[in-house]
Specification:
- By secondary structure, the protein is an alpha/beta fold.
- It has a domain at 5-171 and 210-239 and 270-291: NAD(P)-binding Rossmann-like Domain (Rossmann fold).
- The chain has helices at residues 5-16, 31-42, 64-67, 81-86, 88-106, 143-158, 183-192, 212-224, 243-254, 279-285, 293-310; strands at residues 22-26, 46-50, 57-58, 61-62, 71-74, 113-119, 163-167, 169-171, 197-200, 206-207, 209-211, 232-235, 241-242, 261-264.
- It has a 6-stranded parallel sheet with strand order 2-1-5-6-7-12, with helices on both faces.
- Helix 2 crosses helix 8 and helix 7 (183-192) packs across helix 11.
- It is globular, with a radius of gyration of 20 Å.
- The two termini are 29 Å apart.
Length: 331
């Protein structure tokens, strides 16, 4: 598929640019945000980082580094599908943090273009057959998806020229083990600890998994594109992978003798089969996910083992079973 004239003109503009871009990343210490910062710096851009220790807003309004930036990447979130389903207060705080930022930004004399990381796996109407393109009907069934869609709508209302990236299930080195999110991270850490791998719902249910380095590259290109159109893009592998297939890949990587699986019923916040049509991201950004699932999981497994060894866990196969269950889901 050939890149669109929008992307080609952006390449020409990048070649003519006399200085690197100034980019502020909110949520810079998170799993995705940290990879985005690294990718931006490797491309030569100036990156300003914001997290809980350095908030994007304060008593004087939006931080001056953000106001002086060309772009701001919003990668911050305190919720995931499990948290959103059981803690509406956290959902409200997450929405309020973003809308307050937009309100303060609207009062500033200069406004960087915002790139928002949203959810490709939960905002679409799952009564419609996948794959989901950006023009597919939205209609989230879970609290997490409804929150993400509301945040998207607030951004489009307050800053129409912004860009929204609807991201599939991101995975890769450094992903934390968080309840209710990140099935690959859960399963690899469980295997490294000698624990059971917990499967919730039908093993035939499929998801779209995108390596975090591929996602970070998409964000860099979204920042660099000069006149994005359309303003909503899917970012994923563009392929469905069932939980059963994912188990097979992980068994091949870590060793079938290490993998011990326990099956559980589906939970309220577990989505059905979903995957994304990412052709528009290729046309607009010249981007396509380049990391195969096998290579991505092998690299992530190597990182998990290295981290356990560095922290004193030793060889993963010799690590004793830790108490308590390890819970994993694809979100």
């Amino acid at each position: 598929m050939r890149p669109s004239p929008v992307y080609l003109s952006s390449l020409a503009a990048a070649a003519r640019r006399a200085r690197p871009l100034d980019v502020s990343v909110v949520g810079a210490r998170g799993f995705i945000g940290s990879h985005v910062c690294r990718a931006l710096e490797q491309r030569g851009h100036v990156v300003h980082t914001f997290d809980r220790s350095r908030p994007a807003t304060g008593p004087q309004g939006v931080d001056e580094d953000i106001l002086a930036s060309d772009h701001v990447v919003w990668a911050a979130s305190s919720i995931n599908p499990m948290i959103a389903e059981h803690d509406p207060g956290r959902v409200a705080l997450d929405i309020e943090a973003f809308t307050s930022f937009l309100d303060l930004l609207a009062q500033a004399p200069t406004r960087p273009r915002t790139v928002l990381l949203s959810s490709g796996g939960t905002v679409y109407d799952q009564s419609v057959e996948p794959p989901y393109a950006e023009t597919s009907p939205v209609g989230p069934e879970c609290a997490y998806g409804r929150a993400k869609l509301l945040i998207e709508q607030e951004l489009m209302r307050a800053a129409p020229g912004s860009m929204i990236l609807r991201v599939a299930n991101a995975y890769g080195p450094g992903q934390p083990v968080a309840p209710g999110q990140g099935v690959i991270s859960h399963w690899l850490h469980a295997a490294a600890a000698g624990q059971e791998l917990h499967v919730f719902g039908d093993p035939r249910a499929a998801r779209d998994y995108v390596h975090v380095d591929d996602l970070a590259e998409a964000v860099v290109r979204a920042v660099e594109v000069t006149d994005p159109a359309p303003h909503v893009l899917n970012v994923g592998s563009g392929r469905p992978t069932s939980l059963g297939t994912l188990l097979d890949v992980i068994s091949d990587v870590v060793g079938a003798d290490v993998v011990n699986v326990r099956h559980h019923p589906v939970r309220d916040f577990d989505g059905r089969t979903t995957w994304l049509d990412c052709a528009q991201a290729t046309r607009t950004l010249g981007w396509v996910a380049g990391t195969s699932l096998d290579d991505g999981i092998r690299g992530t497994w190597a990182s998990v083992v290295a981290d356990r060894t560095a922290s004193g866990g030793g060889d993963a196969s010799a690590t004793p079973v830790l108490p308590g269950p390890t819970v994993g889901t694809a979100s």
